[in-house]
Write a structure and sequence with these properties.
Blueprint (H helix, E strand, L loop, with lengths): L1 E6 L2 E3 L10 H12 L3 E6 L23 E3 L14 E3 L3 H9 L6 E4 L7 H14 L5 E3 L2 H5 L1 H7 L4 E2 L5 H12 L26 E3 L2 E2 L10 H4 L4 E2 L2 H15 L3 E4 L12 H11 L4 E3 L11 H10 L5 E5 L3 H6 L6 H13 L8 E6 L6 H13 L3 E6 L7 H6 L20 H20 L1
Parallel strand pairs: 1-3, 1-6, 6-7, 7-8, 9-12, 12-13, 14-15, 15-16
Antiparallel strand pairs: 2-5, 4-5, 10-11
């Protein structure tokens, strides 16, 4: 029994490897391996792949993807930027497939909805290499744009869900190997990182779903139930992955890492500190400022959290309430104070600010930028991307069945020239203020 797993290219105007790994795909890989399957992984976004030109790398493992300019989709022709394929060159990907034995099934994951051209291209390439082999598509795009994925991706089957048992049952039905799977401990399976030859970092997500329902975010749509792995399990597999692969950099992609901290992140970090492992942790999604305390800030510092990011999003009290009351400006100020008291310099602290929300004025964005800059933290502008099924999507003016390419945060460029100029000015202002921090 053989399975080929593929993490597709990104087709976009911009992309950066911010400690990104296909966690769902790697978790399924572990289930397959434990059930006796031979598994191969073609991660087209793996920057350490053979055949990939060397690229600049951040000292903590993140870095720039290799990119090649490709033809822009007709619907995005008005965007005055190069459209690119990010990841492994196509020739290298085809060479990998030529060296592979014929699989019994091909599993393809998907990321952002507007990256679907990369999904379709990867599926086309796989079908040409292995005609007749069934192809199953899952992931974010498959879940949020199910009908579009069924019609446009080229996959034989599109899986909508997040259950390992369900995907195992689907694989069994499609291949005829229905009785091959071992017992599956849903939620407590370690991603199969051993499929990579080189690892510069490891991505972890210790929970599914989200206990909050921010109006612009879709994680609660992807995982209907908020559930967490046990602290003992998480600490154990972080230690295991560190010792097996020698990796020091771990990126938490949880959306509520500090939520109910005494029962989760506090014991996780406590167990790891007692092991004296000298790890580094990153929080690209942003931490809830509301849950930051002096003791938690001190724990993050001792555990090795680098440049902790806080999620402020906006300083508008009205919009904070409208989007889910995730945080307030007072929460943010207290969180910064706790982190600096714990030993972080203000310039080491990051803050995520959302730009481009429906109805959000440029003046509101500038006020948020200047407020953050006054506290000397590093500002990260996060461009809003419409997510089907969320309240902000309904306010965006996009039709429910709009082409997912229009979910791209670069659709700002489809607005009037004055709006384009204003956003460019705000980005330039942010760069200038960050240099001063």
């Amino acid at each position: 029994m053989r399975a080929l797993l593929i993490n597709p290219w990104i087709y976009d105007f911009a992309a950066y490897d911010l400690w990104s790994k296909p966690l769902g795909l790697l978790t399924i890989a572990n289930v397959l391996k434990r059930s006796g399957w031979e598994v191969s992984l073609l991660d087209l976004l793996d920057r350490s792949s053979q055949g990939l030109p060397s690229a600049a790398e951040h000292r903590y493992g993140s870095g720039f993807y290799h990119a090649e300019i490709v033809e822009k989709p007709a619907i995005l022709k008005r965007v005055s930027r190069h459209y690119k394929r990010y990841g492994l060159p196509q020739e290298a990907a085809c060479s990998f497939l030529k060296a592979e034995s014929r699989p019994d099934i091909i599993l393809v994951t998907s990321g952002m909805t507007y990256w679907y051209p990369g999904v379709a291209a990867a599926i086309t390439m796989a079908r040409e290499a292995f005609p007749g082999v069934p192809i199953v598509l899952g992931g974010v795009y498959a879940n949020l744009c199910y009908k579009h994925a069924k019609a446009q991706s080229g996959a034989d089957y599109v899986y909508r869900g997040s259950s390992l048992r369900e995907i195992a049952e689907l694989i069994g039905r499609v291949t005829g190997f229905a009785n091959t799977f071992s017992d599956i401990d849903e939620g407590n399976v370690i991603p199969a990182y051993e499929l990579y030859k080189n690892l510069g970092y490891i991505t972890i997500r210790t929970s599914t779903g989200c206990p909050f329902k921010c109006s612009y975010c879709g994680w609660y749509l992807l995982g209907k139930k908020f559930a967490r792995q046990t602290p003992l399990f998480v600490a154990g597999y972080i230690e295991d992955l560190h010792r097996r692969f020698g990796v020091k950099d771990f990126a938490f992609y949880d959306d509520a890492l500090l939520y109910e901290a005494p029962g989760h992140i506090v014991p996780i970090l406590g167990m790891l500190l007692r092991k004296d492992l000298l790890l580094r942790f990153h929080t690209p999604n942003g931490l809830h400022a509301r849950f930051m305390t002096g003791s938690i800030a001190g724990l993050l510092k001792r555990a090795g959290f680098i440049g902790p990011r806080l999620a402020l999003e906006t300083v508008s009290a009205e919009r904070q309430a409208m989007t889910g009351e995730k945080t307030t400006t007072d929460d943010f100020v207290r969180a910064v104070d706790h982190l600096t008291s714990a030993g972080y310099f203000a310039r080491e602290i990051g803050v995520n600010i959302l730009i481009g929300l429906p109805g959000q004025s440029a003046d509101e964005i500038e006020a948020s930028i200047r407020f953050a800059a006054a506290h000397q933290v590093k500002i990260h502008l996060e461009e809003y991307s419409p997510i089907p099924g969320t309240p902000e999507y309904e306010r965006s003016g996009l039709a429910p069945d709009a082409d997912p390419l229009l979910h791209n945060n670069s659709i700002f460029a489809l607005h009037d020239a004055a709006a384009i100029k204003r956003f460019q000015e705000l980005k330039a202002l942010t760069q200038q203020l960050n240099k001063k921090a």
